[in-house]
């Protein structure tokens, strides 16, 4: 996949896998968040990023 198309394809495939697995996603990555906003067919998979989740994620990333 030449050019800039591959990041979107990667996100699309990941969200498709999430759907097939029966899981949900919290888009803490701004790219994924924008992708979902632009591709409404994935909106049903998304849960909001709460302040509690952001705090938990910060703790996890600093513990690594």
List the helices and strands and how they pair.
Blueprint: H1 5-21, H2 30-38, H3 51-63
- What coarse outline follows from CA principal-axis ratios? globular
Task: Tell me the number of structural domains.
Answer: 1
How many beta-strand segments?
Answer: 0
Radius of gyration: 13 Å
Percentage of helical residues?
55-70%
- Which structural class fits the helix and strand makeup? mainly alpha
The chain-level mean pLDDT equals 91
The number of helical elements comes to 3
Question: Helices and strands, in N-to-C order?
Answer: HHH
Portion in strands: under 5%
**Largest sheet features:** none
Low-pLDDT regions: none
Distance between the termini: 33 Å
Care to give the gist of this entry?
The protein is 61% helix and 0% strand.
